[in-house]
Design goal:
With about 400 residues, the protein is an alpha/beta fold. The chain folds into two domains: about 5-45 and about 285-389, Aspartate Aminotransferase, domain 1; about 60-285, Aspartate Aminotransferase, domain 2, CATH 3.40.640. Helix content is about 40%, strand content about 15%. The strands form three sheets. The protein has a seven-stranded mixed sheet with strand order 2-8-7-6-5-3-4, sandwiched between helices. A three-stranded antiparallel sheet has the order 9-12-11. Helix 8 (about 185-195) links the parallel strand 5 (about 165-170) and strand 6 (about 200-205). It starts with 8 loop residues before the first helix and ends with a helix. The mean pLDDT is about 95. It binds 4'-deoxy-4'-aminopyridoxal-5'-phosphate. 4'-deoxy-4'-aminopyridoxal-5'-phosphate binds near residues 101, 125, 175 and 242.
Length: about 400
């Protein structure tokens, strides 16, 4: 059978993830130091795992409300109110989802009509472009640059806005660059969003992992922005809970209701065991989270200083757990550099172009790996670039 005619054009148009292609090469090799996978190297803190176990022990194995357990939504409202300083009503403005991944998909599907344009800064998380295509939208990438610390510059954003622009996806701190946005840029972006009546999907999954004593600021706190922002957050990164698959969106009631409609028919609800674990994370997870954050901060400083020392130029990113060094001077494409590094020194890092064309010439290295592994990876990278001449 010719299956190509059976598959939706939207889905057929979506390219495979560059990360997946690369990691298929790494699978089954135990000599490789991986700076590739974007997740914490910690297991979920024990008291959070225990809460999941207790929940199962008590026989809590049912569906929950479509929006998520009311008790969890109240805790989320408190946490978001305290951390982001934006108030949301747990009755109708908070939706518990299967990770930020689901929340992002719901937001795009709830907002877009065919042909609507979705702006996002690039290099960016691998889901934004495919998620937009699958929701029948038109992706419009706005390049960000090393010299700006990969912040989104309002003047660059302005160039991408057309009468069809409907949505801006933002992600600071950013995967894959670790970039953050300055207060000035954020204010400029907010002004453009109000002026052009854009809805912002703000993916703030790395917001706790902001370093150098700087406080994270959500665009939702800026004048005129709460009403036009869908704030996405979750437990995967800061609480080391990727496998629990739990996230949430905070947005004005009509937007939450639209997302909930899709969620109730496609997902029904997020898993109750994960919701119990998330409640424990919010109640008692702060100190473990701070310890992990402190450790990432130290690892960032180590990796940035070693990379620059060995001649691989790397800015010091303000957040997340990625560095995005510039490898252009070695005369290889990102892919060639990453492939040869893997083949000759068994270090896996993701070619920057996996995160969009503007990532070409860079490499994403996730430093959420053990210190000893990071040290060894730097020794191997030093030898690798030394041998390149
Ligand atoms: N957004 C960004 C920027 C991410 O890096 C990730 C995970 N790598 C996600 C969303 C998805 O997170 P979740 O585990 O909550 O689905």
């Amino acid at each position: 059978m010719d299956y190509s005619s059976k598959i939706s054009r939207q889905v057929a148009a979506v390219p495979r993830s560059g990360i997946r292609d690369f990691f298929e090469l790494v699978l089954g090799r135990d000599d490789v130091i991986s700076l590739g996978v974007g997740e914490p190297d910690y297991a979920t803190p024990w008291h959070i795992r225990e809460a999941a176990i207790f929940s199962l022990e008590r026989g809590h194995t049912s569906y929950t409300s479509n929006l998520g357990l009311m008790s969890l939504r109240r805790k989320i409202a408190d946490y978001v109110g305290g951390f982001f300083e934006v108030e949301y009503n747990p009755e109708n403005e908070i939706l518990v989802t299967v990770g930020v991944s689901e929340a992002l998909d719901l937001a795009l599907r709830a907002l877009l009509n065919p042909g609507d344009e979705v702006l996002y800064h690039e290099p960016c998380y691998v889901s934004y472009m495919p998620g937009t295509l699958m929701a029948h939208g038109v992706p419009v990438s706005i390049p960000t640059r090393n010299r700006d610390g990969f912040s989104l510059k309002p003047e660059e954003l302005a160039k991408g806005i057309t009468p069809k622009s409907r949505v801006l996806i933002m992600n600071f701190p950013t995967n894959p660059t670790g970039g953050v946005v300055s207060a000035e840029d954020l204010a400029g972006i907010a002004k453009l969003c109000v002026q052009h009546d854009l809805i912002v999907i703000s993916d703030e999954i790395y917001s706790e992992l902001r370093y150098d004593g700087v406080k994270h600021v959500s665009i939702a706190t800026l004048p005129g922005m709460r009403e036009r922002t869908i704030l996405l957050h979750g437990f995967s990164k800061a609480f080391a809970m990727t496998g629990f698959r739990l996230g949430y969106s905070c947005a004005p009631a009509p937007l939450t209701e639209a997302m909930m409609k899709i969620h109730q028919y496609s997902m029904l609800c997020a898993p109750i065991t994960s919701q119990a674990a998330a409640a424990e994370a919010l109640d008692n997870g702060a100190s473990a989270m701070m310890r992990m954050k402190e450790s990432y901060h130290q690892r960032r400083d180590f990796v940035v200083s070693r990379l620059n020392e060995i001649g691989i130029e790397c800015h010091s990113p303000g957040g997340a757990f990625y560095v995005f060094p510039d490898v252009r001077k070695f005369g290889l494409s990102s892919k060639e550099f990453a492939m040869r590094l893997l083949e000759t020194e068994s270090v896996a890092a993701v070619p920057g172009d996996a995160f969009g064309a503007s990532g070409e010439g860079f490499l994403r290295c996730c430093y959420a790996a053990a210190f000893d592994e990071l040290k060894e990876a730097m020794i191997r990278m030093e030898r690798f670039v030394g041998n390149l001449g």
